[in-house]
Amino acid sequence: MSAISREDLVHLSRLAHIEMSGAELDKMTGELGVIVDAIASVSEVASSDIPATSHPIPLTNVLREDVVGQTLSIDEVLLNAPDSDSNRFKVPAILDGE
Amino acid sequence: MVNNLVSDLIRLSATELAAKLRAGDVTSVVAVQAHLDRIAEVDGALNAFLHVNAEEALAVAAEVDAIRAAGGAEAEALHPLAGVPIAIKDLIVTKGQPTTAASKMLEGWMSPYDATVIEKIRAAKLPMLGKTNLDEFAMGSSTEHSAYGVTRNPWNLDRIPGGSGGGSAAAVASFEAPLALGTDTGGSIRQPGAVTGTVGVKPTYGGVSRYGAIAMASSLDQIGPVSRTVLDSAHLQELIGGHDPKDSTSLPKTLEGLVAAAESGATGDLKGLRIGVITELQGEGYQAGVQARFEESLELLKGAGAEIVEVSCPNLKYALGAYYLIMPSEVSSNLAKFDGVRYGNRVLPEDGALTIERVMGATRAAGFGDEVKRRIILGTYALSAGYYDAYYGSAQKVRTLIQRDFDAAFAQADVLVSPTAPTVAFELGANDNDPLAMYLNDVATIPANLAGIPGITVPGGLSEDLPVGIQFLAPAFEDARVYRAGAALEALLEKSWGHTLISQAPAIDSASIAPKA
Amino acid sequence: MSNYTDELVDFDVALEKYDPVLGFEVHVELNTKTKMFSDAPNAFGDDPNTNVTPVDLGLPGVLPVVNKTAVEYSILIGLALNCQIAERCGFARKNYFYPDTPKNFQTSQYDDPIAFDGWLDVELEDGEIFRVEIERAHMEEDAGKLTHMGGASGRIQGADYSLVDYNRAGVPLVEIVTKTIEGAGKRAPELAKAYVAAVREIVKNLGVSDAKMERGNVRCDANVSLMLKGADKFGTRTETKNVNSLRAVEHAVHFEIERHAAVLDSGAKIVQETRHWHEDTRSTTSGRPKSDADDYRYFPEPDLVPIVTTAEWVEELRSRLPEPPADRRKRLKADWGYADKEFRDVVNAGVLDEIEATIAAGTSAAVARKWWMGEIARLAKAADKEIADLGVTPETIVELNSLIAEKKINDKIARLVLEYVVDGEGKPTEIVAKRSLAVVNDDDALGKAVDDAMAAMPDVVEKIKGGKMQAIGALMGPVMKATRGQADAGRVREIVIEKLGL
Ligand SMILES: [Mg+2]
Ligand SMILES: [Zn+2]
Q: C320: CA distance to ligand 2 center in Å?
């Protein structure tokens, strides 16, 4: 498995919604390359006949009855809102206006 | 005289303090105030607390005192630990106190709800002293990655207190609190416990509700107790454990008999107990002093009647790799919610279009520290198209292999034992430019998280005047076993030394540290 | 805007050259009491952000818990669509950033949907049956609601900012995905409409969704591609998102076929992209091309555990299935004896339930049809409402009908009474009493009115005596005037004949 390229990192930072400067991209490209090399060995040991474990303790059918519970008050909802308007969260334009 | 009494008070274990409170020898208000005074005295040097909750803690203490003074049914119904103060890792959400996860992202955030463990602590009326420092979003092994400054090791202020729960461990080790809550995703309770000479337990996955613990890696995270004695941790786990309908992964049945197991272990009799020494978690890579303390402990355990067997878990060599794929993958998704839309500090991009996408990007760039960003990007990579099978998929298979290794080991042994961490506390800044070296600190603790099994660390002596921790592991649901073995080793060591390890900690020289800005 | 001027090829011309290939993703909002993963109310139309818990806001530390009823409703939908029910399935996270998605991932199902491999027989307008294969039906959660502010149109394009209401965030959804549908030919638009109508009917019949398309309870993404006749490879598809009425589904498929044909005829390639439907211009515009940002990084939801469906559970649910709508229609048509056209009109008017209930309450099939398809339909049209929303109940019809049978009112007054019912004045009997609308057939009063009329018109009486029975009509005017129009004409005629001893 090849290490992460700087181009990969540009793509990843966009997927992760973390803006990065050129210097940050350079630094992290190197660091991640080292880490990925160190952990890539897992793909060697894991053959196809081994089942995956996504939960350490196997439970099934943890289900909730369909009964209404306590909701937050509107004050609690908006308590930490960076911006709001008429009891809704306000966000900048989704599409670029230009 | 009074001063002596008060300074003695903070050195009591939680169990001892609880007994004095119940007997009416001391009030909770006095006990809480003694701890607040201690925080005022030493926390300028340690920075274990991000927020001190003095007013509310004293109010809860006064309430407990009033109930006890009035007597009757209500006093009878009080939890045995009522009135004993506790510190809370700032990854666990609390109403009325800020919760930051040691991140700028959540600076000033006030949770409108309590974590389930906090509801239990409130119901049992343990005064909460405040919120303790950690590596940002629990990512780190040194508490150097906090947005609010490093926490220092009470044994040596130039050393790390471990991480991510360095604040809780340092608070308990420095007598700022007899009890604390931690969270353990890859060792964040046990490794700080080891390097601060305290006790910490990661319960069986699902043994304690995760509702209200800010998720780092959902399939690995577990809340657990931090204390100075094994018995105290047992009491605290019994208080916070049990099924929670708000956490789908919480165990349907409460793990029981923990206090009883700790009490029985403390007799020092281990006849019939088979203890497996994990070949792969000792020797090479472990400091000589750590290895020496570990071997001394084995001798004591053998002397107490335990049968020591050697077990091999060959796939543990892949544990670190699997962990550093699964954890960041889950991190990348769990931390996506921090986007500056609903809460948290919104940061606007310095130039270009002001779209929500860019605001999210700028908010997350400014709000997250380097280690958090590194893990988010690594996880995004591991999950991305074309890499999932090789990385996340393979890591989950390794998880199966490690579980199988443990199953085989537990067929031969009732508990497994290893050093908790490969080294004693390293110097602040030592791993600043080497994330990989930092990750190696968790090599002995990570396997338990991958397998979901319980683990405890107990103080095992000193090396270079710094604490060494000994870890016991048990099969899932068998938390009682780690308490029994841990309490036994604790008793055997204290008997051999003639004192507790923590009593040997040097006085904290606040003057040697520049006060916090 | 520029895309509105896309060239089109006439539909029939396009279909001579190309075969359309369709595929649908229909999202159905379940009408559970609470959300998919939280116990917040699942309710429409409440004040913004009042139906949210910490879970629905994606606050730090929260965890999801699956709604059992939502799982059962999903299984019911799967069974009604003739699907296999997964013995074991789980949830996955679909990671993408969008402000209406509080966690910035949607909890959905990925490679193990709860239901798969089904089919649905869709009846076209002429009664032909077209079988649509169902690939899967999976559970997921809805997003919050964005309102785009500023700009000209309220659309996302050109908006200055947006407001987010998370009341809808976390509402349980079942997404029903078809396999690719070939062979519809020029009936593709009609099939599209009929398919969505059939899904809507099924979920409504199951009682698991309010199924109101105008409220977004049922939303359709329509995939369209064209392949040259005789070709063996599918063309590139476009996905027209969130088409929210049956008519729009039909029109959107029609439009995309014409547009694709024009693009392909010009030698250009279809871009794989999402398209937005515009009801005003009955056209689609380009949305977002598929890009590497569509890397959703699915992985198993670690906060939720798998669902195992035992045979007992599935069979218990199967026993709850109501009669399938198609079977029911066949049965009712035979029972009621309606002609093909009559029955189809009843179905299209959406009053099957009402007519069934009216008949069950005691009227004949013919009378029930007469009322629902006649006067009630007329009133609904006048009020610009769905018949079912007019407020007329089967009991109203039964009551009106017995008032007529008892000769308390005549047909004309019955229609008047119905209008008053629609206006909310109460039940027919109450209205008749309150407004004194009862027909006068009290023979004393009527007899006196007849006597007075005959006394005033001796020449008419002579004509009647002479055998000119139609002259009785001349007496009606004064009699009706005396009784304020409430005399029963038939009875008046009888009294006249009696009095004259004819
Ligand atoms: Mg879709
Ligand atoms: Zn969907």
A: 26
Q: Judge: C305–A59 Cβ closer than 8 Å, yes or no.
A: yes
Quick: pLDDT tens for C241-299: 989 899 999 999 999 999 999 999 999 999 999 999 998 899 999 887 777 667 999 99
Residues in chain C: 502
**E-strand spans in C92-168?**
92-95, 105-108, 115-123, 129-141, 145-149, 161-165
Q: Which chain C residues are Cβ-neighbours of B112 within 8 angstroms?
A: 54, 59
Pairing verdict, β C18-29 and C172-178: antiparallel
Three-state SS at B136: helix
Alpha-helical (H) ranges within C6-100 are 11-17, 68-80
Please give the distance, rounded to the nearest whole angstrom, from the Cα atom of residue C25 to the centre of ligand 1. Answer: 6
Shortest-distance ligand to the CA of residue C106: 2
Q: Write down the pTM of the prediction.
A: 0.90
C2 pLDDT more than 50: no
Does the distance separating the beta carbons of C297 and B337 come in below 8 Å? Answer: no
The Cα of C301 is separated from the nearest Cα of chain A by a number of Å equal to 8
Instruction: Determine the straight-line distance between the first and last CA of chain A, rounded to whole angstroms.
Output: 41
Place of tokens 């047909």: C411
pLDDT digits (tens, 9 = 90+) for B326-344: 999 999 999 999 999 999 9
Integer angstrom CA distances of residue B267 from A36, B87, B486, C155: 48, 29, 11, 74
C21: three-class secondary structure by DSSP: strand
B185-218 pLDDT, tens digit each: 999 999 999 999 999 999 999 999 999 999 999 9
Strands C283-289 and C299-300: unpaired
Gap from CA of C51 to ligand 2 centroid (Å): 22
- Copy the structure tokens of residue B410: 């537990």
Asked if residues C486 and C439 have their Cβ atoms less than 8 Å apart, the reply is: yes
Query: Which residue carries 């139309």 as its tokens?
Result: C45
- Please report, for residues B463, C195, C196, the alpha-carbon distance to residue C25 in angstroms, rounded to integers and kept in the order given: 65, 11, 10
Ligand nearest to the CA of C24: 1
Rounded mean pLDDT of C359-365?
A: 89
Question: Do the chains contact at C299 and B333, CB–CB below 8 Å?
Answer: yes
**Token pair recorded at residue A46:** 């894991």
CA separation for the pair B238, C45 (Å, rounded)? 45
DSSP per residue, C385-437: --GGGS---HHHHHHHHHHHHTTSS-HHHHHHHHHHHHTT---HHHHHHHTT-
Q: Which residue does chain A place closest to C57, by CA atoms?
A: A77
Tell me the DSSP string of B373-407.
HHHHHHHHHHHSTTTTIIIIIHHHHHHHHHHHHHH
Q: Nearest residue of B to residue A50 by CA position?
A: B397
Q: C119: burial class by Cβ within 10 Å (0-12, 13-18, 19+)?
A: middle
Pairs of residues, one from chain B and one from chain C, whose beta carbons lie less than 8 Å apart? 100
Handedness of CA B147, B151, B157, B159 (dihedral sign): negative
- C400, C408 Cβ separation under 8 angstroms: no
**pLDDT (0 to 100) of residue B1:** 38
Nearest to A57 among B341, B439, B476 (CB): B476
* Residues B349 and B361 sit within 8 Å (Cβ to Cβ): yes
Whether A12 sits inside 8 A of B377 (CB atoms) is yes
Strands (E), C191-294: 218-228, 238-243, 273-278, 283-289
Task: Calculate the average pLDDT of chain C.
Answer: 91
To the nearest whole Å, the CA of A14 is away from the closest chain B CA by 8
> Can you list the residues of chain A whose pLDDT is less than 70?
1-2, 97-98
Burial C48-71 (b: 16+ CB within 10 A, else e): bbbbbbbbbbbbbbbbbbbbbbbb
pLDDT tens by residue, B8-24: 899 999 999 999 999 99
Among the listed residues C255, C121, C234, the one whose alpha carbon sits nearest the alpha carbon of residue C188: C255
